[in-house]
Amino acid sequence: GSVHPVSPCAHLVCRECWDGADYAGCPICHRRIDPTDPFLKPEHPRQVREVAVGPLKLLALGKDAKADAVRALLRLLARRTPLPPQDRDDVKILLAHAPADLGWFPEDVPVRQTKALALGTLLLDRHTRVAATELLDQHLTTATDVLRLLCVWSGGTADLLEPRPMRSLPRALRRRLLGVLDGLATPSLVEDVLRHPDTWKRAAEILHPYEQHARHPKAALAFAVLRATDLSATEGSLGEALLRTAADHPDAVRVDGTRVKPATWTARVEQALRDRDFPAALALLAQRPGELLRRLDHLLRLRELDVLPDEFGDTLRRVLPQAGPGPLLAALGRMRIRHLPGGRRVFFPRGQVTHSFTIDDTRVPLSPKVTDAVCTLLEAEALRRLALHDEPRLDLAVLDSALTGLAVPAAETAASKALVTVPRGSTQPLPEGEVLRLFLHWTEPAKKRVDLDLSVALYDAEWNFTGLCDYTSLVHEGRSAVHSGDLVSAPAPDGATEYVDLDLAALTEHGVRFALPVVFSFNDVAFEELLDAFAGFMALPSAVEEDRNAAYDPRTVRQRYDLVGDSRVHVPMLVDLDRRTFLWTDLHLPADEGFHSLYRHGADLGRVAQDLHQYFASGRTTLWDLAVWRATARGDEVVVIRRAPHPRAVDELWHYRRQEGEPDTAFAARVRSLETPPWKRQPAEAADALAGEVASHRHVFLALVHGGVAPAGATGSAYRLLPGPVDG
Fold first, then answer.
1. pLDDT (tens digit, 9 = 90+) per residue, 62-71?
2. What residue numbers bound the domain in which 179 lies?
3. pLDDT tens track for 639-657
4. Are 662 and 716 contained in the same domain?
5. 138 part of a folded domain
6. From 63, 246, 578, 722, which residue has the greatest number of CB atoms within 10 Å?
């Protein structure tokens, strides 16, 4: 007969009712079928299809493994934002291949997490431990630096997010770290220890700070504050010694009975803000410029200001040069829109994966004169820094206006490992093609069935939920969205793959404006438990279904990202069908709020998407800002490749030149706002090639999304997101 069981589920399947060539799983339960099962009849021979090949990257042949490892390490260690997971893994691998003498180690590593990762990894290697120990006094400049190092030493991460048992220390390393702590300023030492109390209490178990209290009195004092040690109950001379040390540092601690308690700078700032004492708060915050920028909004709301007070402006001018680039650019992004009525505020708490929560913005808008004055000061400081350079001034800068869609990288420690790494909140054009194919692939561990699902929620221009394409509804209206079918298991080695094809034009015709892909674990297994799990999208040139099949062609993949962490629901991006762009969200949602059912929670997901869309579209500093500031601070001529605003238009080349006596700020404002230039405005179907000709044989700065500008005989520097001819 035609009815036979399939393996391994043993469901009886009629082979005349179901065509095995169309299935990878059981038609009854959707579990993957053994590839050797006779039900899976071989498909007809596939026809070779022409595919749109993605950007090609030029590979350089290495000649000296150690020298190449050092060059790559120095680039990673010089980054001014925390490294994403894939770059942290690269640092560990490269350190194992770098020279053991550490003479190559940089004098300064800007990001403290990266510094702790590198030093901790070197200390773990017995070949580099002695040399790395000699670097600690120079590079560990805060107590939190020491704590991060201890976490890496103990097999954890430098972000201090996941508590771990501490690994015991060799005696020499323990003495060195206590010496580092004792050499710090007591107020900052006490504050830093109290900032991570639980982790420091675990660290105290391996540091034994009271054993050498005479040699390291300030370190012992900080731990006495942390532990609230009863000095009357201490043994020997410890209690008296701690009291003497406390008396020497009234700016950091105070004695309360038999215990030492903190008297911190943070407490004084909070008290000044509660009392609405503007002069006191400003004076205290000026001591720490980064914290001043983080509290800028709060400080400006202490008074009803029509204009920026002179003392405030003078303080900003004085302290801004000491602030880090991250707080500076973040404050600028916030201030740009603070004169507008608030909508929704979005927060991203630190964690192993990225979650968010939103609240209504009830803050009173600031005066436009105040925000303009603050933004002017912040932009002037950015321009001042970028003008400080030893290289010759630029003959020309070539900038890609598509950089406006790329947010300035912030702390991406929880970012998913991706084929094309872009900061969260960045907007990029969809790949060329009539169909966007979303894909999901996973492989379950042995003896544990894992059912992941790929779904898409659809919304109109007003964020009304209009439908979905998922395992419950495989086909949306007029086949404008088609799901490949539900698979509920993914045994090794092949795993399982699901697709959703989005016909962009057809969805638009049916009134869909936004598409929100969601990946979730139906049976509540965390992504981190899987042997392999990744998703992404690829471009298909034709909407004709006969031209499509289930083949996975890596050449068509435009984005691929790993599903990792203790998470079960992931929202990678938001697709804008009208503008043919996608907003990279890389957001994880709580599994206990029911997002496994898009139909029941479509409206809730829509509110999440709308909040993210509005938040990322307003004010944030972009790579376009940075590129314009660098170009105008170091040169007098800028060519902008003005990307076409819609597919029916063509790119243009806009040419800007500094006017006589024009300051950097005014020149930058003209270019940044894409003011129609008085010079050239050349429509060009091959704008990249034309820009390359203009820049040939000149000293140039290139800032591009796609590396398509390759000027012959040029010198200078080039920055690009995607590879291209510029790499050659």
1. 889 999 999 9
2. 170-263
3. 999 998 776 778 889 999 9
4. yes
5. no
6. 246
